[in-house]
Amino acid sequence: MRIAFISYEFPPDTGKGGIGTYVQQIATALAANGFDIHVFAGSPCRTATKKNNGYTVHWVECKDVADYRDKVLNSFTVQHQLVPFDCMESPEIGSNAWEIKKRFPQLRLIVRLHAPNFLVESLKKSCIPFLMKLRFVLGALRRLKWDLGYWKKYKKDEDTDYQFIKLADFITAPSESMKKWVVDHWQINPAKIVLIPNIFLPSKAWLQIPINKEITYKRIVFFGRLNVLKGLVVSTKVMKRILQEFPDWKFRVIGDDGMGPHAGLSMKTWMQKELKPVINQVEWMDGMSYEALPDAISPTEIVLLPSLFESFSYTCSEAMASGKAIIGSKNGGMADLLQQEKSGLLINPLSYREIHAALKKLIVKNELRHQISINGRERVLTDFNADKTTQLYIGYYRSLVGVLKSD
């Protein structure tokens, strides 16, 4: 079976996030099981074709995702004319395969849900202060324009992600939360959406991190991009109080800087100002290579992941594999990964009280912290075993063969 993955995001050129990680893992897994896999990826610096882990990557040089959407058509057309693809898969966000589907309407399209742009933007807006939103509207009025800005009513028919998903022949989702969001907001028939978790194959480096029975490092860690979507506004305020209550504990922050809640301030700068009273207990580390992460996570006790929404969360999976006690968001895919009080603690990322209570519980209840750490690693190796998940994908794609041949 010959499958094309149309994804602007793909490591190392454009893929530090979950979409790129997903495409890399699914391409590797399917290629290892006899599928002919081609990935069409965006790049800021090259147009090239390379064989990688049994599959083929076609890099398309482009300025951004919109530019990629236009330019990938030519690259895809060349390969499709050489040997036709049976189907293609694309994320909904950015409608990566839009031009390809229009050019080849008979080619079956699988849309993989990750997180629509409207969902992402609405979460960002939820963290913008009221006065900043009001200033936007007043500024528009001064320019003799009527623009409600952050309060503008959403119209799904004008949303390109929604328009793109309507072109889909098949839809898959990595979590119940992601499926529910699409059903609720876009009124997609739930029967059309197949739920399959992302493949996660933990490296030996994650699994070799020791699970300490006693508290050893007195350190809480966050890792991921620093922005409002990761729930860092409320959790930073909580961490200030926690570090004041437990002055022998530290907070390690790992990630590339991003958008903060106030105009003109990055997330890191805002956090530094907020954490000023306890700044000597805070450790800052820039985003690092995937291979370096386990060493940075190892000397910690608790992983704090308060994202406002995650469709799946590779970060949570990695933390589970590392054998650390996790406090994760109940909004999104972490709720599928973690079992409350067994393999993690789930919190409302906007609740100061819930985040504080969860952190304090794991600090003072060492036996619970230790058991959650053990259970988290065990769950990611059994319930979310990469071989089991790969078989789900193989079964799904092979189930499409009959449909494709009937066209």
- Global shape: globular
What portion of the residues fall into strands of 2 or more residues? Answer: 15-25%
Kindly report how far apart the N and C termini lie: 15 Å
Major pleated sheet = 8 strands, mixed
Strands, helices and their partners?
Layout lengths: L1 E6 L10 H14 L4 E8 L4 E5 L2 E7 L3 H18 L4 E5 L6 H6 L4 E5 L4 H10 L3 H13 L17 H6 L4 E4 L2 H11 L6 E3 L8 H4 L11 E5 L8 H14 L4 E5 L12 H8 L7 E4 L7 H5 L4 E4 L8 H9 L2 E5 L4 H4 L7 E3 L4 H13 L1 H17 L3 H20 L2
Parallel strand pairs: 1-2, 1-5, 2-4, 5-6, 6-7, 7-8, 9-10, 9-12, 10-11, 12-13, 13-14
Antiparallel strand pairs: 3-4
Helix pairs in contact: 9-14, 12-15
Please tag this protein with its features.
407 residues; alpha/beta; Rossmann fold; six-stranded parallel beta sheet; 42% helix; globular
Describe the 3D structure.
The chain is an alpha/beta fold. It has 2 domains: 174 residues, Rossmann fold, CATH 3.40.50; 179 residues, Rossmann fold, CATH 3.40.50.2000. It contains 16 helices and 14 strands. The strands form 2 sheets. An 8-stranded mixed β-sheet has the order 3-4-2-1-5-6-7-8. Helix 9 packs across helix 14 and helix 12 packs across helix 15. It is globular.
Q: In a few lines, what is going on in this structure?
A:
The protein has 407 residues and is α/β, with parallel strands linked by helices. The chain is 42% helix and 17% strand.
